[in-house]
Amino acid sequence: MRTRTVLIAIVFLLAATLAAGQKVETVDGVRVVHNSGPGAWGGTAKVALEPVRVLGDVDTADENLAFYMPSTIAMDAAGDLYVLDTGNHRIQKFGPDGKYLATYGRQGQGPGEFYYPAWLAIDAKGFIYVTDPNNQRIQVLTPDGKDHKAIKGIEQGAGPVFLGKSGELLTGAPRMRFVFNDPGEKEMKDPALPKLVRVLDLEGKAIREFGEPRDYGEELVNRGANEVLMTVAAGGEVYLAYTAQNKIEKYAADGRLLWRADRELPYSMEIKDKGEIKRTGNNVSVRGPQLNRCASGIAVDAKGRVWVVTMTRQLKKEEQVGMSMTVSMDGSGGRTMGMKPQGEGQELRTTDAYKLEVFDADGVLLGSLPLDFFVDGIFIYGDRLFLMDKLRGTQFKEYRIKG
Q1: Alpha carbon 201 to chain centroid, angstroms
Q2: 269: closest CA among 322, 316, 318, 311?
Q3: In 316-364, which ranges are E strands?
Q4: Hey, which of 110, 130, 190, 403 has its CA 20 to 30 A from 212?
Q5: Of the candidates 73, 31, 28, the residue with the CA atom closest to the CA atom of residue 54
Q6: d(CA 44, CA 129)
Q7: pLDDT value at 187 more than 80
Q8: CA 329, CA 324: separation in Å to the nearest integer?
């Protein structure tokens, strides 16, 4: 009788999950969750976000808070906050109360200098790991911001860096990059698509890699549609949210795919335009593919819930902001690079194009929270959640997770 009661409870739980709009199947030994509807919470969210503060402002007169294209915010064991201020080639350190404490780094190629750094992470001892892709390295700073060492050989365009299991660094795949053949070749020969996650030791040696990209058969589409956002949980598990595919994945620390999830979207993820590469003599022009975007951030909280910044719709032309980049070479092989936002939407601050979706540890959609501003990233440390506006307000909005 006791066994029967347990079985009945399990059947009831499965039925409730299906009724909430989830279909679960196993594909090639992997759990796949197809979410539909508002999620297991129904129409009422079981969590709330309590505003704490806003850090940074594009219009501030305080140079310590005048970020330019910030990329990351991290928290150390003492609760101090570190903002990677990419466009200003520096790290800004703040206390738990948001008070400015120090600046680390400056523009350059020497020790402790950055050139549009991409990401940072802080280990348990307070050492700061900074992805510095344009100097082809990960720089490691001491807890007080001094140069400690450089991990060389990082591929140009390397993405975020996270601390994994003891003695391991996890790096995301490079952002969109292109490989061109000689002008005389009629077709581009795309090399084998790189895995989405690389695991390195603390000297930069590759240990393993995992995460299978989808092969669309087109170079430009492959580079754009396989862009992923990444986060790493305390136990070393890796979570990926695809920006141009309706797909969220969880991997074990050893690289095994544990589950894959999707959800209902009010727009198509079909490729609108594959893009084009034109060659005229030695000149090459590129028109990128037109891809709808569905995600702009992913993070995991202390309860194992997965938070994904999801697009409720595509941005209108007047809301869009892109990034322009210029590169010039001098006669001695030196390089100068510049990056800046551009687009009609730079002055905008509010929009209804984003929401926060919350999934449980097994990929089941729990529910969502509406947002009324532009979001380019999400970060969670303990019960604190940060939403980043990178290109417009250049700030981080801090919240306390309630529930």
Answers
A1: 22
A2: 311
A3: 322-329, 335-342, 354-359
A4: 130
A5: 73
A6: 40
A7: no
A8: 17
Cβ pair 68, 56 in contact under 8 A: no
| Alpha-carbon span 112 to 119, nearest angstrom | 15
How far apart (Å, rounded) are the C-alpha atoms in residues 175 and 54? 28
Residue 43: the pLDDT is 86
Query: What does the pLDDT look like over 335-387, one tens digit per residue?
Result: 778 889 999 999 999 999 999 999 999 999 999 999 999 999 999 999 999 99
What is the C-alpha end-to-end distance of the chain, expressed in Å? 36
pLDDT of residue 278: 81
Question: Which residue matches tokens 């299906």?
Answer: 18
**Cβ proximity of 400 and 49 under 8 Å:** yes
> Which sign, positive or negative, has the C-alpha torsion 138, 393, 395, 101?
positive
Rounded Cα distance between 161 and 67, Å, is 21
Under a CB-based contact definition with an 8 Å cutoff, are residues 188 and 180 in contact? yes
Fill in the amino acid letter for 182.
D
Indicate the average pLDDT of the chain.
89
pTM: 0.90
